[in-house]
Amino acid sequence: MTRVISPTMRSNHQKMTDVRKAKIDGIAKFIPAQTVSQGPSAGQLAIVGWGSTYGPIHQAVKRLRAVGVDVSHIHIRYLMPFPENLGELLRGYEQILVPEMNTGQLVEVLRSKFLIDAKRLNKVSGQPFKIREIVDAIESLARRVSMNAPEKLTLKDFSTDQEVRWCPGCGDYAILKTIQKLMPELDTPKENTVFVSGIGCSSRFPLLHGNLRISHNPWPSARDCDRGKACRTLS
C-alpha cells in the first residue's frame, strides 16, 4: 500500500466532492420558500433569527409593530442550504439585525453569502434572550436609521425669496410652478440636481428654485450657427 495519491485519484476525489456539493445545493429546490413571520416582506428593518430565539424575537417585534415601528421578523428553518428566495427577501430591507445565542455564526454566513450589511446581537451567557433586550436593540437601530435618513423635501425647498418677474402671461410662470411641485415628488437630493438655463428670460429660471446648482448655457453665436438668422431671432 502506497501513500502516493495518483492523478486519477486526485481528479476522482475532486469530482466526487463536486457531486456531493451539487446534491446538497439541489435540496434547495425541494424546501419551502422563506416566508416572513411578522410584518411586510420589505421595509426599514428585519429581525432574522433561527432556533430558540423565535419566542423573544416574535414578542419583541409584535410589541414594536403595535406602536408603529416598521419592523419584520424572519425566522430561518433551513440553514444548509438556505431557501432559494432568502437572499432576495433580505435585500428588501434597509437594515438587518440577527440575534443569536452564540458569537455570530449565522450573521457571518449571511454577510458573506448575500453581501448584506447584517448587524449582530449576540448573547453567550447561558441564558435566553429577554424580550426587552431585543426591543432595546431594535429601538437603538431604528433611531440610528432615522437620524441618518434625509429630510423629506417640500415645496419650500425649491422656492426663493427673490421676486418672480416675467412678462404678463409668460409661460415661464406655469413652468416654474410645475417644476416646484414636481421636484419634492421626485425625492432627489438637491445636491444631485442641476438646472441648465439659456439666455434671456429663461436664465432667471434656476435662480428661483432655491440653492440649486446652475449651469448657464448660452445660445451659440450667429456666426457659429448654420441658421444665423433663426439664432438671432430666438436670442
The residue fraction in helices comes out at 25-40%
CATH class placement of the largest domain? Alpha Beta
The average pLDDT is 80
Strand content: 5-15%
Structural class: alpha/beta
Any low-confidence stretches, pLDDT <50, length ≥5? 211-216, 219-235
**Order of strands in the sheet with most strands:** 2-1-3-4
CATH architecture descriptor text of the largest domain = 3-Layer(aba) Sandwich
Give the number of DSSP strands: 6
CATH topology of the largest domain: Rossmann fold
Element-by-element helix/strand order: HEHEHEHEHHEEH
Amino-to-carboxy terminus distance? 95 Å
Main sheet characteristics: 4 strands, parallel
Q: How many distinct helices?
A: 7
Q: What would you call the shape?
A: elongated
Count structural domains.
2
* Gyration radius, rounded: 30 Å
Question: What can you tell me about this protein's structure?
Answer:
This protein has 235 residues and is of the alpha/beta class. It folds into two domains: 134 residues, Rossmann fold (3-Layer(aba) Sandwich); 80 residues, no CATH class. Helix content is 37%, strand content 15%. It has seven helices and six strands. The strands form two sheets. A four-stranded parallel beta sheet has the order 2-1-3-4, sandwiched between helices. It has a two-stranded parallel sheet with strand order 5-6. Helix 2 links the parallel strand 1 and strand 2. Helix 2 crosses helix 5. The longest helix is centred in the first third of the chain and has 20 residues. The termini are far apart. The C terminus is likely disordered.
Strand and helix map with partners:
Blueprint: H1 7-26, E1 43-50, H2 54-66, E2 71-76, H3 86-90, E3 93-100, H4 105-114, E4 118-122, H5 131-148, H6 172-186, E5 194-197, E6 213-216, H7 228-234
Parallel strand pairs: 1-2, 1-3, 3-4, 5-6
